Amino acid sequence: MGEKKSVRPVRSRGFWGSMSPRIGLARGWSFLGRSPFPVAFLLGSMTASGLVAVVFYWFVVSASRRTPDPALVGCRPDSEGSWSVGVFYGKSPFSLSPIELHGSSNPNSSAWPIANPVLTCAAPSSAGYPSNFVADPFLYLQDSVLYLFFESKSTTAMKGDIGVARSFDHGGTWEFLGIALEEPWHLSYPFVFSYQNQIYMMPEGNKKGELRLYRAVKFPLKWTLEKVIIRKPLIDASLIQYEGNYWLFGSDFSRFGVEKNAELEIWYSSSPLGPWKQHPRNPIYRIDKSLGARNGGRPFIYEGSLYRLGQDCSETYGRRLQIYKIEKLNKEEFQEVPANLRIEESKKGRNAWNGIRHHHLDTQQLPSGNWIAVMDGDRVPSGDSIRRFITGCTYTLLLFFLVMVMSILVGAANCCMASNRRHEYSWLRTRMHMNFRARRYITCIKSYGSSIRSRVNPKTCTGKLVLSLLVLLGISFVCMSVHFLTEGNGAEEAYIYEGQYSQFTMVTMTYEARLWNLKLYVKHYSQCESVREIVVVWNKGKPPSESEFDSAVPVRIRVEEQNSLNNRFKVDPLIKTRAVLELDDDILMTCNDIEKGFRVWRENPERLVGFYPRLIDGSPLQYRNERYARGKNGYNVILTGAAFMDSEYAFNKYWSEIAREGRNFVDHSFNCEDLLMNFLYANASAVRTVEYVHPAWAIDTSKLSTAAISRNTQVHYDIRTNCLSKFLSLYGSLPSRWEFGTRVDGWDR
């Protein structure tokens, strides 16, 4: 027998360790090649993408991103939308216009005027009932008091409850009373009506599979189930008494073959308590959801004709309201034709509370003979939050694939097999489950990569151009991904104050040489939610036509006889808001910053609230730039080239007899009207008169043209220093200073 050989134990090296003796890591599967260049390329791509994302977020997204509003604590984004409720008035249901056009005001909330929406998720949320949105409003009139019943989407239970609010001033201000009705299932569409001295509510609760009728035990907060009137999951059921019968309109989407939001049924009875019988033509509609089949509010009778409100759901759920005049309605027939509701849709898109959709209206006649209506609206389409998330993720994936394509072009990626030996293919087939088709795909990828590199050589001009275009495409993918994933609903919303919204008028002064500035200005700022009107003070030259402007709000050209800077503050009886934003036509800021400034002004309407602070001090007084104020950490002047003010107080003060000599000096210097306004404010008050709001960014478009008023900065500063000396002698000193960064919200840092 031969000598026994000793067996040396072999330590297991795992999958990749056992793989390396056969094909080796260096010769096996390789996507990134063998050199450190591929790793550096991918790390560089990731770093560059991250830097682009940070820069885009900092300069673009954060500038327009809404600061969390403490008044909206409890409200949460919801895939169903961000519904709120507005009030409309008119002499008829076909001449309704929003509350802000009717002069309703509330000094307690600095709302001159009160503006829609008048009820938001803030009302139930601040009362301890966290709500994502409020929708489906119904009015109930009791003497001179208005009650508003509505769906409130619970943040905790994620279902609808029925809330109720009360108004003593015809719908201008609302007091949230509480949750009137709550069930284990979702409730909405609280159709409230009276019958035989009793008050009833017929809410939608289709998840229960039946239509229930509740009776008020202690109006408006306590209700009891009266009866189940129809054992079907009817949606948005409405009823009305017409020609001796009660008629009920509703939708049953549980029918086989019925498209959602496209079905309408009619039922009739001699009493709202039933029994109810189906109309022989049911279902009236069943296939086209653009026809307004789903109800959109309470039917009403006007001048002897019956009208029904329906929802156009063709583009998205609840896109808009449609109204129909019912020409035939009896136990055998039904016929309706479209009518015109004449409610103008907002042109501000997502920046308007109802800019994207509105799907419910309840209009009723007041004892005065006029009509009031409540309508819900939303600034985003249905499913917007989910859609934006998916879109953002899609752009991220596109960026990943683009990086892979670029890596192939520059030779950083090499998807191939390092060896073609038969036993190695066999080993891969058994150990990595690779079949012939997979190997063929890999070979094709390698072939395509080689073909692309041969045709688009990065070292040639064509190759460099292609790579440059791919880099730009990658940057756009990064920006779009950040935009959709981090920018919320994409709206620059107004800020609520004391439970209410308001509006302001923008005033700018210009002349013919700056017309291109003005058109850009109007198009941009007319999209801001709280802007009511833009007044252009035309100082010189032939004025443009108002139709030349692309504007979402009315534009009024006020032509002046004399070219004077004092015209900026001229008393204008046609201005319908107390708040005025004086803003030079060469300044561009975000609507979000403008809305912040308006909110701060509403907190302190007796102050000048603006975006450009200055510190005037020294002996003698000297005019300096904002950098000086920052260095001293304080300011005592706000430039009125970008400032909110009370038009009634400020304009009358500026044109008072005491300001005559100051105005003459402004005309003489053709400068300093803003400094004069600051002196007049300081002279009339012993308390703080100015407040600063820090804009995320501001662009001076005058630098892009030859029409700037003050080209020589030093000469401009010398003139203003001379003005300070004059105004000091006329009106006394300015206050010492107020520090930056004293606001809790940090808007003045």
TrEMBL record:
Residues 504-735 form the Glycosyl transferase domain. Keywords: Disulfide bond, Manganese, Membrane, Metal-binding, Transferase, Transmembrane, Transmembrane helix. One of its GO terms (cellular component) is membrane. It is found in: Membrane. The chain crosses the membrane at residues 37-60, 395-419, 465-485. Residues 75-378 form the Glucosamine inositolphosphorylceramide transferase 1 N-terminal domain. Its cofactor is Mn(2+). Belongs to the glycosyltransferase 64 family. Essential protein. Glycosyltransferase that mediates the glycosylation of glycosylinositol phosphorylceramides (GIPCs), the major sphingolipids in the plasma membrane; acts as a HexN(Ac)-specific GIPC sugar transferase. Responsible for the glycosylation of a subgroup of GIPCs found in seeds and pollen that contain GlcNAc and GlcN (GlcN(Ac)). Maybe involved in the maintenance of cell-cell adhesion. This is Glucosamine inositolphosphorylceramide transferase 1. It comes from Zingiber officinale.
